[in-house]
Design brief:
The chain is an alpha+beta fold. It is 28% helix and 20% strand. The protein has a domain at 219-320: Enolase-like, domain 1.
Length: 325
């Protein structure tokens, strides 16, 4: 870890004013500190934002507002979240160990960086870490890498479980910067890698995530998050699915579907949603709809199993909603 200056800004405006190109915001530190130790990130100035008034979970005005500094464990346990948006609670509970969930913030979770081994090994090339140096994962070890949204420059998966669930629910992020406040659809917040995989989000220099806003969706009570991984605890997704379904009797009227572990960003599946709408709930319907999930998939040498795994994950997640609650 390299030498850096450490400060605690007095308020959000002060944090924004003090930030610069070599600044990093510190919340839970569960990603930043690791990357600083590895010298993947070497900010010269670290701003501890934990004292800023960016907390609170509010479900009183319709929808849900979550402060960026709320801890993952607190949001997962909140009764409004558990009752109204179980897909969020489940995604958070499956994200990390209990110790990490007690420390990690919501904003930090959405901004965490890829777990690609090449990105974290400074002795190897990586276009995310050093633009133009290459992507050894394309021809190298790529079992856990993406099959959707990839490019010749990057095949790294997006690591956040929570972001997948939020994208399925059309969530937005509020941002505060030198030019004021703006709101961005989370689905658009993460760009595809293209030729610029080092540009991982739509944050402008000095901007800070202040809160997450989930619009009202009364039928999100019928939702879940399923995560498939190599081991049950403290592991990132090989495949995951966030699903929410509105039914009238046995007929699916509307659905929201997104997957993780498959894409270079949280991946919404409108073709699957369309294939579910108007159909009778059941495994045959789910299997037909899941077939649309793999459109455009580009498997690599070691992850050719992923498209089939994605379909099976979706079917299983939808079947979970059939179980008595």
């Amino acid at each position: 870890m390299r030498e850096f200056r450490f400060d605690r800004p007095a308020d959000v405006g002060d944090a924004v004013r003090r930030s610069g190109s070599d600044t990093a915001f510190l919340a839970g530190g569960t990603t930043l500190v690791d990357l600083m130790k590895l010298e993947v990130m070497s900010p010269r100035h670290v701003l501890d934002i934990n004292r800023l008034p960016l907390r609170g979970i509010d479900a009183t005005g319709g929808g849900l507002r979550i402060g960026a500094l709320e801890r993952m464990s607190d949001v997962a346990a909140d009764p409004h979240v558990r009752r109204g948006y179980p897909v969020l609670s489940r995604a958070l509970e499956l994200s990390a160990s209990g110790q990490l969930r007690n420390m990690a913030s919501i904003g930090g979770n959405l901004l965490q960086r890829t777990r690609c081994g090449y990105f974290r090994d400074v002795s190897t090339p990586c276009n995310k870490r050093q633009p133009g140096s290459g992507c050894p994962a394309v021809e190298g070890e790529n079992r856990t890498h993406a099959v959707l949204g990839t490019s010749d420059s990057c095949v790294a998966t997006h690591p956040s479980d929570l972001a997948v669930a939020l994208v399925a629910l059309d969530a937005k992020v509020r941002l505060r910067g030198r030019d004021g406040t703006r709101t961005v659809d989370l689905r658009d917040f993460y760009p595809l890698p293209g030729d610029t995989p080092h540009l991982e989000h739509d944050l402008r220099p000095g901007e800070l995530v202040t809160e997450v806003v989930v619009p009202p969706l009364d039928w999100a009570t019928r939702s879940t998050y399923l995560k498939i991984r190599d081991r049950q605890s403290y592991e990132f997704a090989l495949s995951s699915a966030a699903v929410a379904v509105r039914r009238v009797g046995d007929t699916i009227v509307e659905a929201r579907v997104a997957v993780g572990g498959m894409g270079t960003r949280p991946w919404r599946l409108p073709a699957v949603e369309k294939a579910l709408a108007g159909r009778r709930a059941g495994e045959d319907t789910y299997a037909t709809a899941a077939a649309a999930a793999v459109e455009g998939a580009r498997p690599l040498r070691h992850n050719a199993f992923k498209p089939e795994l994605m379909k099976r994950t979706l079917i299983r997640a939808l079947l979970e909603l059939e179980q008595p609650r």
